[in-house]
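sry for the spam today, last one i promise. C-alpha cells for design, 334 residues
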C-alpha cells in the first residue's frame, strides 16, 4: 500500500547574524527527504527575547501547523500551543543548563525543557550523550526520546592533500568558551605549526596568541563554501572541546580526509568512533603530545583518514532524512 503524502512544517528561530547551523543542518535533511514528504519552512518573526516576544511567537505559530510540526531547536517554547500528537522537538544540547544557576536555571529548565517535553509527541536528540543528559534533567519516558544524529553537508567531498610535515596547518573550529582554544594555544607553544581559527577571536585569545608567539590566521562569518576551503587547506583539525551535544567538525574533517584530534568527553567519542585521536581536553600536555604524534606518524594519519571515510557513512543526509521520515510516518499512524 502506497504511503500517503504528508506535509511537514519545519519551525526555525528568527535568523540572526552568525547563527545558522540549525538552519543548515535541516536544509541538508529536507533536500534528502523521500518524495512522500512535502516540507515547508517557517521562520519566526520575532527573536527569542523577553516574555512578550516569546508569547507572541507561541501564538504566531498556531495557524502555521502542518500534518507534522518539527521544531528544529532553540525555540522549544513555541510547542506550548501546538498539537501535541503531531509535534516533534529537536534538542541539540543542554549546555545552557551547565552554565546557569539559581532562578535563571530554573526558568530555562522549566520553559525550554520540562514543559516542551510534555507538549510534544517525540523529542529527537543528536547523540546518545544528549539523550542521557536530558533524562537526568527531566522526568520523561526514555522511549519518547529518539537519537537521530546530525547530517553532514552533501557539499563536502573527499579532498586528498599532501601533509605539510615541515609546518602543518592546524585548523581549530570555534571560539566560544567550551571550544577550549586557550589550552590549544598553550599546547602548540614552540611547535613549528600554523594555527587557523574559525570564529571571531576575543581579546584574551589575541593576548594568548601573542604571548606564546603563535603564527595564526583568523576567519569568521564565512559562507559555508569558504569553511569547506579551510578544511581542505588544513593538515590537522583540532576539536578539543570541553562540551558538545554532537561535534559536527569531527565528521566534516573525516569527510574531507583530514586527521582529527578531539576530546574524550560528552558526545565526541560517540561521533568520532575510531576516526580521531582522543585526548583529555583539560590536559595541555596530552593535546601537545597528540599533535606531535600526528605530525611524526604517517601511518597513524593514514589510518585515521581511512577510518574517517567509513565513519561518515552513518551521517549521510539520505540516511538521516530516512530516520526522520520514519518518525514522521510513525506519528501519523499512531
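last one done:
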Amino acid at each position: 500500500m502506497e504511503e500517503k503524502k504528508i506535509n511537514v512544517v519545519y519551525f526555525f528561530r528568527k535568523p540572526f547574524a552568525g547563527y545558522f547551523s540549525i538552519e543548515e543542518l535541516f536544509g541538508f535533511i529536507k533536500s534528502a527527504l523521500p518524495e512522500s514528504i512535502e516540507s515547508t519552512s517557517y521562520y519566526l518573526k520575532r527573536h527569542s527575547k523577553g516574555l512578550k516576544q516569546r508569547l507572541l511567537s507561541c501564538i504566531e505559530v498556531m495557524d502555521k501547523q502542518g500534518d507534522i510540526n518539527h521544531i528544529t531547536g532553540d525555540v522549544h517554547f513555541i510547542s506550548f500551543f501546538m498539537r501535541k500528537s503531531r509535534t516533534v522537538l529537536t534538542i541539540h544540547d543542554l549546555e545552557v543548563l551547565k552554565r546557569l544557576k539559581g532562578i535563571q536555571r530554573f526558568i530555562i529548565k522549566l520553559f525550554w525543557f520540562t514543559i516542551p517535553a510534555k507538549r510534544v509527541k517525540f523529542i529527537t536528540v543528536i547523540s546518545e550523550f544528549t539523550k542521557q543528559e536530558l533524562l537526568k534533567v527531566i522526568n520523561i519516558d526514555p522511549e519518547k526520546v529518539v537519537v537521530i544524529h546530525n547530517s553532514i553537508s552533501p557539499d563536502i567531498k573527499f579532498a586528498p592533500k599532501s601533509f605539510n610535515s615541515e609546518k602543518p596547518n592546524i585548523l581549530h573550529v570555534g571560539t566560544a568558551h567550551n571550544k577550549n582554544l586557550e589550552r590549544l594555544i598553550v599546547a602548540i607553544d614552540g611547535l613549528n605549526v600554523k594555527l587557523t581559527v574559525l570564529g571571531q577571536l576575543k581579546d584574551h585569545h589575541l593576548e594568548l596568541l601573542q604571548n606564546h608567539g603563535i603564527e595564526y590566521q583568523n576567519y569568521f562569518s564565512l559562507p559555508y563554501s569558504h569553511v569547506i576551503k579551510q578544511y581542505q587547506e588544513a593538515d590537522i583539525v583540532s576539536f578539543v572541546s570541553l562540551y558538545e551535544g554532537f561535534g559536527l567538525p569531527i565528521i566534516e574533517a573525516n569527510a574531507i580526509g583530514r586527521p582529527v584530534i578531539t576530546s574524550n568527553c560528552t558526545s565526541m567519542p560517540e561521533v568520532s568512533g575510531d576516526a580521531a585521536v582522543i585526548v583529555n581536553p583539560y590536559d595541555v600536555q596530552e593535546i601537545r603530545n597528540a599533535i606531535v604524534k600526528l605530525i611524526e606518524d604517517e601511518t597513524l594519519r593514514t589510518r585515521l583518514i581511512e577510518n574517517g571515510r567509513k565513519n561518515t557513512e552513518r551521517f549521510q543526509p539520505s540516511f538521516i532524512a530516512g530516520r526522520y521520515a520514519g518518525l514522521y510516518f510513525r506519528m501519523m499512524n499512531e
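The chain has two domains: 6-151+316-333, 169-313. ok im logging off now
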